[in-house]
Amino acid sequence: MDAMYDLIIIGAGPAGLAAGIYGGRAHLHTLILEKSTVGGRAYTTREIVNYPGIPSTSGPDLTEKMAEQAKGFGVEIKREPVKSMDVSGDVKLINTRRHQYGAKAVIIATGTSARILGIPGERELTGQGVAYCATCDAEFFQDQHVVVVGSGDQAIEEGMYITKFASRVTVIVLHDEGILDCNKESAEKALHHPKMDFIWNSVLTEVCGDTQVTGVKIKNIKTEEITDYPCDGVFFFVGMIPETKWLPDCLEKDSRGWLHVNEQMETNVPGVYAAGDVRDKYLRQVSTAISDGAVAATAAERYIEDLDYFREQVLESPEPVILGFWSPEFNGSIDAIGNISSPYRVMEVDVSRKKAWADRYHVVLSEETPAVALLVDKGEVKEQLKL
Description:
alpha/beta; 23% helix; single chain; 5-stranded parallel β-sheet; elongated
């Protein structure tokens, strides 16, 4: 192991940076690892007008300030892609190409990547007229005709940004005329934009060109007619996929790859949290990502405090201790623990507050078993006591 941290955050988008700010402010030795641009996908957003308290800002401006704020609290930010990690023990091992880092807790804030349709010509002409980021690539289409695929917020808002450079932007929409998937304000602006037009009830079936995009094939889903349509570039905005394929199988995800978490941003693995767009959630925005990051870091801080206390009081105890697990949910459970008579030190463990301790020893309380007492030596169970 090259270095040990209290908290490692994987991803430096708004969720990761917010988590870093909270972690650093809590005096946790914190590292943020980012594989590409600090700021994540938010960095590529030209204009942000719905962040509370800031009527108008840009993605680069907002995320750069967040990164500086995190650094001000002592947080390290490194440009290193994470290749794998082992989260099975109390110390989580994070592997990059050149280093292995250890951490008491990990927050996964890896966000999303653009969905690829996989139609003929798309991959072959990526970077040669096919693009997925307007802020990154729109300037290369000065005074040219561009096709945009998609009708959600990202597609329509990015399409309007492309009009600052392109002479014409044509949007391919799956729905009937006038129906867009974006918010109403953006739809109204786009439908009346002098440089934007729309092709309805249609999908793209092919991107054409040898070394550069020269056009596309468009299929009308009602008539089945396929039309050759000349253009100079194609921007795809057809949804996002979570950056979770590289994660260990022990972390629970849904069928599409989104990470499952609870209200504290806890995954099913103790000490591992997820925040931002990478988790299964209703709304993916900068403001909700920041909220996730704050919650995850606060929960991680408490987990680390609890982990340190467990190490002090149990793992490093010179003598065996009795862990008495109880819950306020079950009547009589605390009384049962209070009646233990033993020459060893008894620690009362409220499972509603110390779930990680109960998970460690596979303790599940119920009406039939309202309390459990274990004699533990150096962390190992030696005996289960009768109550």
